[in-house]
Amino acid sequence: MSPQVEVKPEEDARLPILEAEIEREWRNHRPGYVKNLLSANRLREQVHQTALSCIRVANEYEERGHGADQAREAQQALIHPQRNQS
Fold first, then answer.
1. pTM over 0.70
2. Whole domain around residue 25: which residue ranges?
């Protein structure tokens, strides 16, 4: 068995792709939230933190042997939390 090299979420190649996806989705579907973050000068920080959380979730799902579809659902819940609320 070969040792697995652990990549930190901050160094993951998916990070810039996720950040772009999150910002695009928020601008399209959560304009009020984006406006509030922009007024507080926190949009980049919040997008970055959400992307890191998405990578952590994907890694946890992979470690537990869950499928990519389940990981993607969990990531979408982080990107669009209001979709899960009744």
1. yes
2. 14-84
